[in-house]
Design a protein that fits this description.
Shape: globular
CATH superfamily of one domain: P-loop containing nucleotide triphosphate hydrolases
Helix content: 25-40%
InterPro entries: AAA+_ATPase, ABC_transporter-like_ATP-bd, ABC_transporter-like_CS, ABC_transpr_CbiO/EcfA_su, ECF_ABC_transporter_ATP-bd, P-loop_NTPase
Radius of gyration: 17 Å
CATH class of one domain: Alpha Beta
GO molecular function: ATP binding; ATP hydrolysis activity; ATPase-coupled transmembrane transporter activity
Family: Belongs to the ABC transporter superfamily.
Protein name: Cobalt/nickel transport system ATP-binding protein
Pfam family, one: ABC_tran
CATH topology of one domain: Rossmann fold
Structural class: alpha/beta
Strand order of the largest sheet: 6-7-8-3-9-10
């Protein structure tokens, strides 16, 4: 199976703090399903941000779809195919309404406004979220925001989906909806979650991040 995303020998430290990643390596094949587990502060969220170029490693290499990624232009290109769902939806939702947030990504891919709206509505229909189309984003419930944030990323039609603690503060009904959505996706998934029951239902291959390195569980 072809490799979609590779992180090799990643080292990273936040300014003035000890190293959080010390040679972490991860390979994500097309269609792969992986859970990153480990203690709080072990660097799981940091690794996801490095994967899409939101943080740059002190050492190591990121390769996406066979091409090294180092410059912002190279990572912008990668982010067309690798989508990250942030841990806090408010970090990702910034347009006045749901449909405008949904259309933002497709518009940046070069679609016309009509095409971007059609793409966005198709994703909302697929996820059974069409009733949220015209809602004001900051009036959504926490669970609705999480589902809409996922929808905005899926509107980009990514080949790899990275999710950072997607079940945080989700009620059981919305957690079940999220589980159904993720089960139905035919793309590679990398999930950071402390929710062992949720991970088990997705039947993910688990990798443990400890002392700055990743190893299979």
């Amino acid at each position: 199976m072809a490799s979609a995303l590779e992180l090799e020998g990643i080292h990273f430290a936040y300014p003035g703090r000890p190293s959080i990643l010390a040679g972490a390596s991860l390979t994500v094949a097309e269609g792969d399903r992986i859970a990153l587990v480990g203690p709080n502060g072990s660097g799981k969220s940091t690794l996801l941000r490095i994967a899409v170029g939101l943080l740059r490693p002190n050492a190591g290499r990121v390769t996406g779809f066979g091409r090294p990624r180092a410059s912002e232009a190279e990572f912008q290109d990668l982010r067309r195919d690798v989508g990250l769902v942030f841990q806090d939806p408010d970090d990702q939702l910034f347009c006045p309404t749901v449909i405008e947030d949904m259309a933002f990504g497709p518009l940046n891919l070069g679609q016309s406004r009509a095409e971007a709206l059609a793409t966005s509505e198709a994703v909302l229909e697929e996820l059974d979220l069409m009733h949220l189309r015209n809602r004001v984003t900051h009036h959504l419930s926490g669970g609705e925001k999480r589902l809409v944030t996922l929808a905005t990323v899926l509107a980009m039609r990514p080949k790899v989906l990275l999710l950072d603690e997607p079940t945080n503060a989700l009620d059981p009904e919305n957690a079940a909806r999220l589980l159904s959505i993720l089960r139905g996706l035919d793309i590679a998934l990398v999930l950071v979650s402390h929710d062992a029951a949720f991970r088990a239902q997705l039947e993910l291959r688990e990798m443990r991040l400890l002392e700055g390195r990743l190893a299979a569980r």
